[in-house]
Amino acid sequence: MTGKPVEKPGDAAPIGVVGAGWVGLVTAACFAELGHSVVARDVVQEKVDALNRGEVTIHEPGLAELLSSNADRLEFTTDMDRLLDHARLLFVCVDTPPTHSGDADLSRVRAVVDELAGSPDHVLVMKSTVPAGTGETIMAELPGSGYVSCPEFLKEGSAVEDFMHPDRVVIGVAPGREADGDAVAELYAPLGGEMVRTDVTSAEMVKLASNAYLATRISFINEIANVCEEVGADVSEVARGMGLDDRIGPQFLRPGIGFGGSCFPKDVSALKLLAGNSGYHFQLLNAVIEVNELQKRRVVGKLVEHIGPLAGKRIALLGLAFKPDTDDMREASSLVLSARLAAEGAEVVAFDPVAMDAARELLPGVEMARSALEALEGADGAVLVTEWPEFRELDWTGAAGVMNRPLLIDGRNYLDPDELAAAGFTWDGVGRAEVRPD
Ligand code: UGA
What we know:
CATH class of the largest domain: Alpha Beta
Number of helices: 17
Radius of gyration: 23 Å
Strand content: 5-15%
Shape: globular
Number of domains: 2
Bound molecules: uridine-5'-diphosphate-glucuronic acid
Structural class: alpha/beta
Largest sheet: 8 strands, mixed
CATH architecture of the largest domain: 3-Layer(aba) Sandwich
């Protein structure tokens, strides 16, 4: 653990977690680390067995350590009754993936609500991202039970750190149920984030609006980067100059080949549809989505500019995961990019330090290399898709030697262009001038 130490509370509380996926596991492990006794329930027996044997099913820095050092305060089960016996507060951490229409699929949330019917002593604490209005519907279906909307703001790759040091904790309750909110607030109090106490629907909106706003910033800076390319400005300088304005701030102004992951694409589309279904046309979000789609495709145009038609050319992708420090391939830009490259007739070879297993099934036409250097061997061009630190450490002079054409399209502006040029590369990033070999 880095950052400020977290004060452990005096009173340990029994906590229930529903869903041992990424959010559920981080929540369970972190509450156990704070001294609470946690029972987490998942419907997948093999996952529960593996977790009880101490095997961690996802790649998240610090999580395996916390699960193992707090094993005596953690139990995994498939049995809902065991959970209901153990704790009054039940943190619901099931996923709400997008349906084909782009709406959130609430079937897993619904299943939990069905299981809780008739348990008026319990308080359901909703961590899952749900459309605004969902809590009101659930509360009407579970009269007597407690309901707290407490959205999660964890980032993959730094979720444990984010949990332990939240910027804010949002707690939404119905009028008259403030005590339920107090119980949740008490659990988060040692972590020091600002508490935002509000109503349930506003809490749900905070989550959707936050993700949609961050996604909007990314699409915005991506468009600024594209304009920088046209007018000869450097987007890194522009973003730095913008970010120093306190009203703007420096975060989420990194241009690239689009945002991905399980949250931004889903939540932007869910908010757009929620607005539409409520009778409001959320115009801005259409552009956010469209810019993001186009941004993933621009790389193909850049490759063509450098090496001509891609048919028969060998293109190496460095990184496949939607961002570093995760093996998550959901909505990763690499999916669209490799499909586009294949459609142009290119031969695609890839390497990712962690996501190869997750990617193999999704990208059957892509040759998987055992190392970055192996991926670059004989390639006519390479695209850095995910900013994994080990790519900075690569022997780029050696890499230039094994490539057919030492060309690096840096989709994250991650590598030092001058270093690459000194190694013999043509470097071309996003919103910055290209640099040719010395
Ligand atoms: C995001 C939010 O940041 C979390 O606060 C939220 O809890 C989470 O969604 C969720 O709803 O569960 P996450 O998807 O894990 O977290 O990842 P981010 O670090 O936010 O990155 C999302 C995508 O945006 C990545 O593809 C990343 O490469 C891209 N990005 C991010 C940029 O292109 N530029 C930036 O400046 C920042």
